[in-house]
Amino acid sequence: MTATAAPLDLLLLPTWLVPVEPAGVVLKEHGLGIRDGRIAFIGPRAAALKLVANEVRELPGVLLSPGLINAHGHAAMSLFRGMADDLPLMTWLEKHIWPAEAKWVDEAFVRDGTDLAIAEQLKGGITCFSDMYFYPKVASDCVHNSGIRAQIAIPILDFPIPGASTPDEAIRQGVELFGDLKHHPRIKITFGPHAPYTVSDDNLEKIRVIAEELDAAIHMHVHETASEVQQAVEQTGERPLARLGRLGLLGPRFQAVHMTQISEDDLALLVESNTSIVHCPESNLKLASGFCPVERLWQAGVNVAIGTDGAASNNDLDLLGETRTAALLAKAVAGSATALDAHRALRMATLNGARAMGLESEIGSLEVGKAADIVAFDLSGLAQQPIYDPVSQLIYATGRECVKHLWVAGKQLLDDRQLTRMDEQQLTATAIAWGQRISGHHE
């Protein structure tokens, strides 16, 4: 029996199909078939129409792409959206965010905030996100129930945090959660030491050893600001990235978030260790933290993914908008209009994110055998016309409101802009109630 003999669960017939791998390709009038949650067929429309499918969907004016991958964020912080705007990073953290977290963050906060973030991300075309926040078990339950895919990084700091009174307790919880979810089809647990300035060498050593034993990734804020690097050099004579290199943390399983400060030595270390970088341009712009030199990294062969960061410092979880900002900023920073073209920008928001998370064999491109994590962008609107290159139009002229449908592992989670598993009105009401409590209108 040939592989195509069993009927497809779903056949999608868009105007454009952008597989991302191979790079720079746009397939016109092609079909994509899904069976058992995986991509089972990609081919010309005429061949597609000969296949037996339980459901066929014509998608005129639609561009199908791999689901977007948000490679860094703090989902539950969506409940702090806009609470402490227009402040520099350390003031924002120490005077506003940390005190608010100490006061408000509990399991209910994390559950409601994570659900809000998941819904916002699904509506914006995101099929997989990385989360680094307190009560990671609660967040993983939200991911499980919603149908989205995620990497959950266990936050580890040298001081007590909500849900873990010591770093050892946080690590222990992480190991336990890793074991519990080892075979989960959509959740991957990683370790998230917060930043070089909040985690000691001893704790970093512990994390390295455990991550190696479990073959788990490490996700960490690194070189977010110039002052972070400068302080480390003044105190220890060593740049934070060099310290992580010396401690043996860097490597293909290490995800360095932000990296706005990159010296020649840093670049050599990144290239040699095959470390991935997660670029969060809007958060870096808003907090005036600096610019990650994306084009320089890309040309050197470093894998650069993209993240929104949390809604408290962005203020949206809009990866399509983030990708446009990244493409524009890359050109300004490199002083070159050819830096980070639209096709590479889309790759950064899909396959590069998958690679950073060690999921590139599963997601990040539309290829037969991969999981059917797919987003349908409607490019039929007035503001998208005329279309010369649909990928350019997607990156430079399209907002997330054009996201029409979305599937994760073949399950449709967004149908004609409506969430299929989550109650949008309920989520909105819950978020409003939290806002009133936090701002003191209803104690």
TrEMBL record:
It holds the Pfam family Amidohydro_1. SUPFAM superfamilies: Composite domain of metallo-dependent hydrolases, Metallo-dependent hydrolases. GO terms for molecular function: deaminase activity; hydrolase activity, acting on carbon-nitrogen (but not peptide) bonds, in cyclic amidines; metal ion binding. Residues 64-412 form the Amidohydrolase-related domain. Keywords: Hydrolase, Metal-binding, Zinc. NCBIfam families: PRK09045.1. Belongs to the metallo-dependent hydrolases superfamily. ATZ/TRZ family. This is N-ethylammeline chlorohydrolase. It comes from Pseudomonas simiae.
